[in-house]
Design brief:
By secondary structure, the protein is an alpha+beta fold. Helix content is about 40%, strand content about 10%. It has a two-stranded antiparallel ribbon with strand order 1-2. Strands 3-4 form a two-stranded antiparallel ribbon. The structure holds zinc ion.
Length: about 170
């Protein structure tokens, strides 16, 4: 593992980015060392505070200096907008939802991960699935319901469905 390469897990990213979020919202941080110090004080492991790790995490978060102060560079950037997936019902950043253009440019209501899962399990082509969900969204725009996104294959494979709530 090269020393200059960022090295951290998704969990590390969540933890550290959460702290950075709070720190830069509450303080005018002008120096990276100050940020490192504050992160150290809240108990972030020193391995995560190495320059390359930290810089990489901040870039991912789109945090950078504006007039000498660390802030979100793009406040309304996609990574800040949270959407709920109609299938897994998890809140995810809008990056995790595809943007479709066929009818009216919009975000799919089902996340990329769920589409991939359906593709893997049913063998249905990803582009087909995107088309199906885009049409569903268009066709039922006014009455779209989460039940339309249930994992329909589960009763077939497992004899029961995890996504249909009784
Ligand atoms: Zn999902």
């Amino acid at each position: 593992m090269g020393f200059n390469k960022p090295h951290y897990s998704k969990k590390d990213f969540k933890t550290v980015s959460g702290y950075i979020h709070r720190i830069i919202n509450r303080n005018n941080v002008t120096k990276l060392e100050d940020l490192q110090e504050k992160l150290k004080n809240v108990g972030v492991e020193s391995r995560l505070l190495h320059y390359h790790n930290l810089k990489h995490i901040m870039n991912e978060m789109k945090v950078g200096k504006i007039n000498g102060v660390y802030k979100y560079v793009d406040i309304i950037s996609e990574s800040k907008v949270m959407l709920e997936c109609y299938r897994c019902e998890k809140l995810k950043t809008s990056k995790e939802f595809l943007t479709v253009h066929k009818y009216k440019t919009s975000k799919l209501k089902i996340c990329i991960e769920c589409i991939r899962e359906e593709n893997k399990i049913t063998g249905e082509n990803v582009q087909e699935l995107i088309g199906i969900y885009e049409y569903l969204q268009h066709r039922y725009a006014k009455s779209l319901d989460k039940s339309m996104y249930s994992k329909f294959w589960e009763p077939v494979i497992y004899g029961k469905s995890s996504s249909v709530k009784v």
